[in-house]
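So, does this match?
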Amino acid sequence: MNDDLEEIRKRRLAALQNNQVEENEEAIKQHEAQTQVILRRILTDEAKTRLQNLKLARPEVGQSVEAQLISWAQSGRIQSKITDSQLRDILREINKQKRDTKITFRRV
C-alpha cells in the first residue's frame, strides 16, 4: 500500500512539474509574440531586418537594443516608426558609449 501511495505521489509530482514547464513555455511564446507585435509597430522593414541580423551576429547586443526599443515604445518615447538610418544612429551611439570606457592603471 505504501508503494502504491509513493507511486501515485511520484506520478502527481511529475504531472505538476510537466504542467509548470508547459506554462513557462507558453509564457515565453506569448512574450515573444508581444515583442514581435511591438517591433513590427515601431520599426520599418529595413530596420527590423537590421535588428534581426544584429541578433544573429551579436545576440547579447541585439537583445539589449531590442529591450531598449520596446521600453521606449511602452513609455511613449517613440512617436513614429524607426527607420534603418535611425536604428544605425542608435547602434552607433551605443557602440560609442562602450568605447568611451577607459581603464587606467597607476603604479603604486
